[in-house]
Each structure stands twice: as structure tokens, then as C-alpha cells.
Amino acid sequence: MRAAHLAALTTLPSCVWRLLLAAGFSMGYQPEWMAANASSAADRVYLVALSLVTEGLALLTLGLVRPWGERLPSWVPAIGGWRVRPLAAVVPASIGAVALVLLWSLNPLLYTDLFHDPLEPQGGWQLLMATAYLPLVLWGPLLGLVTWAYYRRRCTDR
């Protein structure tokens, strides 16, 4: 239960960071970067949508420990009340966990020049950004742990 809640919370700091960018706060980025990446309406919609989708996906982890992960709520149109087949949750969650581990474990290697770009946040802003994105490294392993527990609970001991 705790791992599921932690997994859902790992995305929150980076989502807040992006939402503040979408709201027009520079977050330490230089004006040239802001003009190219966060000034148009499309840029802002993208930042908000990315944050909402990210947090929504992270919140799905809770389905692996809550009753709605075993039986769909009655308010869901057409399929409400149906039993969730365990592999219908385990397979996408496992793929997601592996993808997240690969994405966030390789991330430092892909962005080694991040802190050398003069348009990127520097100093305290750099530290704040790293602090906001660092919890994402835990998202994949936590999702994997919760998925394994769900699998063991739903698919074994029959």
C-alpha cells in the first residue's frame, strides 16, 4: 500500500515544476529558452497535458492495491462492475515499470549536457529542478514492486 502511494507521489514534484512553467514562471530558464519552449499557448497546453497524463498514469498504480483494481466501479459506463482480469493489469503495469526504469535510469546519460547549457537553470534553480525530477527514478521500481505484489495476490495461492 505504501509503495503504491509513493509511486503515485513520485511524479508530483516534476508535474508542479511543469505547471509553474506553463503558468509563466521562468523557473531559472533564460528568456531565450522560455521564448522557444514555454511561451506559446501550444507550449503551455503541452506542459499542462503532460503533467495531467503523467500524474494520471502514476495514480493508476493505486488500482493495484485498491478494490477498483479487482472490480471496475459501477459508475464506469458499459463495463462497471466487471471483474478485472489480473493479467489485464499486470501486463501493462509490468511494461510500464520496465519502460520507466529504462527511461529514468538512462536519463542522466542522455542529458549529461543539461547543466552545461547556459539557457538551462543554474545554481539554486538547477538544484531545485534536479530535486523535482529525481523522484521519477523511483517510479519504475515502485510500480514494479506493487505490480509484483498484485500478481502474487491475484494469480498465486489458488
From TrEMBL:
The chain crosses the membrane at residues 46-65, 86-107, 127-151. This is Uncharacterized protein. It comes from the Bacteria. Keywords: Membrane, Transmembrane, Transmembrane helix. The keyword Transmembrane helix applies.
